[in-house]
Design goal:
Distance between the termini: 42 Å
Helix content: 25-40%
Oligomer: single chain
Number of helices: 10
Largest sheet: 5 strands, parallel
Number of strands: 10
């Protein structure tokens, strides 16, 4: 991926390069104005920017790029005092946020999950297709480490939606990953949110704990996908006991917990148009309309 990383602290820029230079092409900017000039001339696969920047804030950077027609996906970095500003960036196309201080390894993990293989449209005449309806159901084994592969498999079916902007594919990938992972962790694995917090704080390998819990069950996660030229409908259902949605921490109200509990539901809400749970809480439906609508060719 071609990534622009924006931060006015040299040590953070250097650390980011060290973590990602072997896997991605990295450009750096020290302030919002420099970032705007670079992003105006290059279509980056991803922009990661601090909110508090000299010359032009991270929010202003997104606003100006969107105003000029640049739609590169954003991840924003923020402090406690800027959390409400960070939320505003989601309305401008931000796909995730990280609260300072954060672990660079967590950011690296997020980038890997978002990595989308580019489709060379010159190899196939996809633009001759008027529209394409997609509908399928999958039963996934509860293998938490395989979720990125599950998501990549699902996203590969969207190649025929050749007109979709990159940010729509990022949004789909975020929602799929978070909801499937939640279904495995909390549905099949029966791990409660407060238990997850305790496991992570103890330093125990959380993925191993989830895998051990899931080995005791033959249950699976059901994923249903429907998509057409208008949008994307997803249903994720697990065999678990469900949960009370109101009991899940809200990262806006409690930003210090945004990397542990409630993050998946929050990110899903911010990247789609609607999300509904059944009364039990073990079945969730989401819908996202495409940011660019493709009108089907009229029958002759």
């Amino acid at each position: 991926m071609n990534i622009l990383f924006v931060d006015d602290e040299e040590s953070i820029r250097e650390l980011f390069v060290e973590f990602h230079k072997s896997e991605h092409s990295i450009d750096l900017a020290v302030n919002g104005l420099e970032a705007f000039e670079k992003a105006s001339n290059i279509d980056y696969d991803l922009i990661i920017s601090d909110i508090s920047l000299p010359k032009m804030s991270g929010l202003e950077l997104i606003e100006e790029l969107r105003r000029t027609g640049k739609n590169s996906p954003f991840i924003v970095i923020t402090g406690d005092s800027d959390i409400e500003i960070a939320i505003k960036t989601f309305r401008l196309g931000a796909i995730d946020f990280f609260l300072k201080p954060f672990k660079m390894s967590a950011l690296k993990d997020r980038i890997q999950k978002l990595n989308i293989n580019k489709v060379d449209k010159s190899e196939v005449s996809l633009n001759h297709i008027a529209y394409f309806d997609l509908s399928f159901r999958l039963h996934f084994s509860p293998e938490i480490r395989q979720v990125p592969k599950f998501v990549d498999h699902i996203c590969s079916h969207f190649d025929y939606f050749y007109y979709l902007p990159k940010e729509d594919l990022f949004s789909i990938k975020i929602v799929l990953h978070e909801l499937i992972a939640n279904a495995i962790e909390h549905g099949v694995g029966r791990i409660k949110y407060f238990e997850k917090k305790a496991i992570l704080e103890s330093g125990e390998d959380y993925y191993s704990r989830v895998e051990d819990a899931c080995r005791k069950s033959n249950e699976k996660v059901l994923v249903s996908i429907q998509a057409n030229e208008q949008g994307f409908h997803l249903t994720v259902e697990d065999p678990g006991e469900g949960f009370d949605l109101n009991s899940v921490p809200n990262p806006i109200e409690n930003p210090t917990r945004n990397l542990v509990s409630g993050r998946g539901i929050f990110l899903s809400r911010m990247n789609i148009d609607s999300i509904t749970y059944n009364e039990k809480g073990n079945r969730v439906e989401v819908f996202k309309s495409w940011s660019i609508q493709k009108e089907p060719i009229a029958d002759k």
